[in-house]
Amino acid sequence: MNYFNFLNRHQIIAYSGQRYSIEDATGVQEEDTAVTFSQKVLSCSSIEELNNCNADYVLIGIPEDIGVRANFGRAGAAGAWEAFLGAFLNLQHHENNDASRFCVLGNVVVEDLMKDCEHLQSSNHEDRIKLSAAVEEIDDRVTQVIQQVIGSGKLPVIIGGGHNNCYPILRAFNGVAAINIDAHTDLRVAKGRHSGNGFSHALEHGYLRNYFMIGLQENYLSEPMIELLHDDLRLAYTTYKFDYLNISEEVQLAIDHIDSTNYGLEIDMDVVANFPSSAQSPIGFSMERLRKTVKEILEVSDEMPRYIHICEAAPVYGYPNQVGKALANLVNDLP
Prior knowledge:
The protein is α/β, with parallel strands linked by helices. The protein is 36% helix and 15% strand. It is built from 13 helices and nine strands. It has a nine-stranded mixed β-sheet with strand order 1-3-2-4-9-8-5-6-7, sandwiched between helices. Helix 10 links the parallel strand 6 and strand 7 (235-239). The longest helix is centred in the middle third of the chain and has 26 residues, at 125-150. The chain starts with a strand and ends with a helix.
């Protein structure tokens, strides 16, 4: 698969912290019989192997933040995949927490583009045009990867990078609805490519059907955006309210708006208050409210989502291990 880095078993095991017995002077004997996810998650070295893999979920990383920078956001989302792996692969495997439902496939290759864009500044218009062009290249790579994973019949869980990656994912599925748990619409005008207009491009090209947003912060909705949300019947949303706790009612509005047999679930970590992310805010959901919202969506919808996309986390602005644990728990919550 072009532009994809498959993680092998040796690389996965390397993420596991080793605990050797203090009483063993040789440092070879393990402290106990505990088994971590790194030892039991599945891995594949090709799409052909994936087709025969028994995992329910395929984990894919996109370690980039070019789209965020092209949207005048702060860099850092490129580190989410690595932070996630460090926490996720050290979860404990046992009969009530089966790691083998996951295949840790690897990541989309973007290192070359990240290096090319390293010194570009969005405040410089010519540089911003170059950042946008690089996002288009990422679009092509992500779409190719997701298209091949779709053929395996597994549910892709995509982690890391900016929300610009919703567009190539939706393009790969070519006509699904979406629920987006997010503080922002990401419906900026579809001119150029960046993290703020992925859904606009998807709507314009017919890759996105009905679109429901949960948790929008009205302070960031411009008048033209409010008019768009009002006039386009494909769009609907609920706003963030600090004292609103009826998650079931909110989720039911989303389910009623979309086709819950054919939809993608988008989770932008900007929605969580004080979470290290591209557009971190002191206002927003608690982590537990986010987890409950996701759980409710999965329980109420007619089918599991076609994909799950968790984006915009930026470990560099907090404690990477805590960011990794938050993402790991979101993924491990999956049934």
